[in-house]
């Protein structure tokens, strides 16, 4: 009997949710995603110190001898996620998601500018934009920025997505892909209800992604659904059939080590026959639905804050490493 990962690959595209290049080599996914927390974690691993150091040295060279340490760190910070992305693209055949600075999540214009800059960095390294997804938080402002980038032929991945209102707004703006967060939704409900656990088929994160998937397929939206942020194997198997699932190396290994039947749970043919109400989400509707959804309100704010902290930590790490490089020179 085939393992669960091999069976999953027949109906869903598994994506590696990591900045760990060795893990990506092990599981050979088509695509890979990163975020500030994952990049910060990978940047601290000894085996990737060369990537960090080369990025810092490249920043020094670009800025010249008169650059301050702060200037070097800022430039290296802007380039590091792309440096990891380039290494990942040497391994995978598909796309890598690279995230815009989370501190720009409520600034449409700045997000558009940063998205263009990220694409320019990849293109300067010889990578075409069709292999890159610009990852943006699913605020109203972020979705509008993604809509602008999509019209320019820059594909986007809308992350920190917790509610159907965010998903519909993305689809109506022709966003390439969304990453609804399964595990973080579960975390919120466990804390809010005091429950220790949920059966996989009633897991609130699974229920949310299933609702989004069925809505998209019912009404013919082309935006891809990529479930993310998994806490256990059951969440993944309950979403078998989703367009994509981005999965941590630990859970990819568990899927690979587990044998058993993996039935398809999400099916576009079945979704078309479902009785689902279609709604339109403009800014006022988005804000109203978001305010009424305590979970989405809490988790979006928490997610942005977490990514912001990871970015601050990354800047400190780069400053520390630069001091060592300077001292050694």
Describe this structure in words.
With 329 residues, this protein is α/β, with parallel strands linked by helices. The protein has a single domain (4-324), classed as Alpha-Beta Barrel (TIM Barrel), CATH 3.20.20.70. Helix content is 57%, strand content 11%. It contains 15 helices and 8 strands. It has helices at residues 4-9, 21-27, 36-43, 49-63, 69-89, 108-124, 140-151, 164-172, 182-193, 204-219, 233-238, 249-257, 268-272, 283-292, 294-328, and strands at 13-17, 31-33, 96-99, 132-137, 156-161, 177-180, 224-227, 244-247. The protein has an 8-stranded parallel beta barrel, surrounded by 8 helices. Strand 3 (96-99), helix 6 (108-124) and strand 4 (132-137) form a beta-alpha-beta unit. Helix 6 (108-124) crosses helix 7. It starts with a helix and ends with a helix.
Question: Helix and strand layout, with pairings?
Answer:
Blueprint: H1 4-9, E1 13-17, H2 21-27, E2 31-33, H3 36-43, H4 49-63, H5 69-89, E3 96-99, H6 108-124, E4 132-137, H7 140-151, E5 156-161, H8 164-172, E6 177-180, H9 182-193, H10 204-219, E7 224-227, H11 233-238, E8 244-247, H12 249-257, H13 268-272, H14 283-292, H15 294-328
Parallel strand pairs: 1-2, 1-8, 2-3, 3-4, 4-5, 5-6, 6-7, 7-8
Helix pairs in contact: 3-15, 4-5, 4-15, 5-15, 6-7, 8-10, 9-10, 9-15
């Amino acid at each position: 009997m085939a393992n669960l990962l091999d069976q999953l690959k027949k109906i869903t595209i598994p994506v590696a949710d990591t900045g760990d290049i060795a893990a990506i080599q092990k599981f050979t996914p088509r695509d890979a995603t990163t975020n500030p927390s994952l990049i910060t974690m990978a940047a601290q691993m000894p085996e990737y110190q060369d990537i960090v150091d080369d990025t810092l040295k490249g920043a020094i060279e670009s800025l010249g001898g008169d650059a301050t340490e702060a200037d070097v760190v800022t430039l290296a910070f802007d380039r590091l996620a792309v440096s990891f992305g380039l290494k990942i693209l040497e391994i995978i055949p598909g796309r890598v998601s690279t995230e815009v600075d989370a501190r720009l999540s409520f600034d449409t214009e700045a997000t558009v500018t940063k998205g263009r800059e990220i694409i320019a960095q990849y293109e300067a390294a010889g990578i075409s934009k069709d292999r890159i997804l610009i990852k943006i938080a699913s605020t109203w402002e972020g979705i509008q920025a993604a809509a602008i980038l999509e019209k320019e032929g820059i594909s986007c991945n809308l992350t920190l997505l917790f509610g159907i209102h965010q998903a519909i707004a993305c689809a109506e703006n022709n966003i390439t892909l969304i990453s609804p967060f399964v595990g973080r939704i579960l975390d919120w409900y466990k804390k809010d209800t005091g429950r220790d656990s949920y059966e996989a088929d009633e897991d609130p994160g699974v229920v949310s992604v299933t609702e989004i998937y069925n809505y998209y397929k019912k009404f013919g939206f082309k935006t891809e659904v990529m479930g993310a942020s998994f806490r256990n194997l059951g969440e993944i198997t309950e979403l078998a059939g989703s367009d994509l699932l981005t999965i941590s190396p630990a859970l990819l290994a568990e899927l690979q080590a587990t044998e058993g039947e993996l039935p398809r749970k999400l099916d576009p043919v079945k979704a078309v026959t479902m009785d689902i109400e279609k709604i339109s989400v403009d800014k006022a509707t988005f804000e109203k639905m978001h305010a009424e959804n305590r979970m989405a309100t809490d988790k979006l704010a928490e997610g942005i804050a977490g990514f912001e902290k990871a970015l601050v930590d990354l800047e400190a790490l780069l400053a520390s490493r630069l001091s060592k490089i300077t001292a050694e020179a």
